[in-house]
Design brief:
Elements: H1 3-13, H2 18-29, E1 34-38, E2 41-46, E3 49-56, E4 61-65, E5 78-79, E6 90-94, H3 102-117, H4 134-141, H5 144-152, H6 155-166, H7 171-186
Helix pairs in contact: 1-2, 2-3, 4-5, 6-7
Domain YdhG-like: 17-113
Protein name: YdhG-like domain-containing protein
InterPro entries: YdeI_bac, YdhG-like
Length: 198
């Protein structure tokens, strides 16, 4: 399936916002950005760097600016989607009845492009090491194949699994989670792989 078809399908799937998403897409298509699909939704890149993306939800739709922290936001459109967590990403959120002003949207996109070309970027902090919960350690001690498969995963995937088990409050939940993920680890699949590269 082509990227264009994937984006069209995404827009069609979000019927409530399809007209508005189409309008935003047309603004993006007038730029030098490459339209792609990452994490299941439309994204726009330049020289392999994420610039922006479109997202649709039940009660709103919006534009994500991946290095939006550098945008001047002259029209006060941007919010930090996860205050305290998100460092660079900013969202322009639209709800029912909000107008889309193409010239203002285009200004924000152009500024994001210029910022990217100027090298403005908040680098993600790399997490060090993986803290493996005792239950997972015990399972790997009793199953060398599981241990080998776990250590063959990327540090990020190892962390996802460790946090998945470690975040459970009850022992029974930890055990059921271990049972669920063991076959996935043996197959070399990440916990969230099915949501990536859609």
């Amino acid at each position: 399936m082509t990227t264009a078809k994937k984006v069209s399908d995404y827009i069609r799937k979000h019927e409530r916002w399809s007209e508005q998403l189409t309008q935003l897409r047309e603004i993006f298509q007038q730029t030098e950005l490459l339209e792609e699909v990452k994490w299941g939704s439309p994204t726009y890149t330049l020289n392999g760097k994420l610039i922006a993306g479109l997202g649709a939800f039940k009660n709103h739709f919006g534009i994500w600016f991946h290095q939006g922290v550098f945008l001047k936001d002259r029209h006060n459109k941007l919010v930090n989607a996860q205050e305290g967590k998100t460092k660079a990403l900013r969202q322009w959120k639209f709800v029912e009845g909000d107008p889309i002003e193409p010239e203002i949207v285009a200004q924000y996109i152009q500024e994001a492009i210029e910022n990217s070309l100027a090298g403005k970027e908040v680098k993600p902090e790399r997490k060090k090491g993986v803290v493996i919960p005792d239950l997972l350690k015990q399972a790997m001690a009793g199953n060398p194949k599981l241990k080998e498969a776990f250590h063959a995963l990327t540090p990020g995937k190892q962390r996802e699994y460790a946090e998945y088990i470690g975040s459970a409050k009850r022992e029974a939940t930890k055990e059921s989670r271990l049972e669920k993920i063991s076959p996935m680890i043996l197959e070399g699949i990440g916990l969230y792989d099915k949501y990536k590269n859609c």
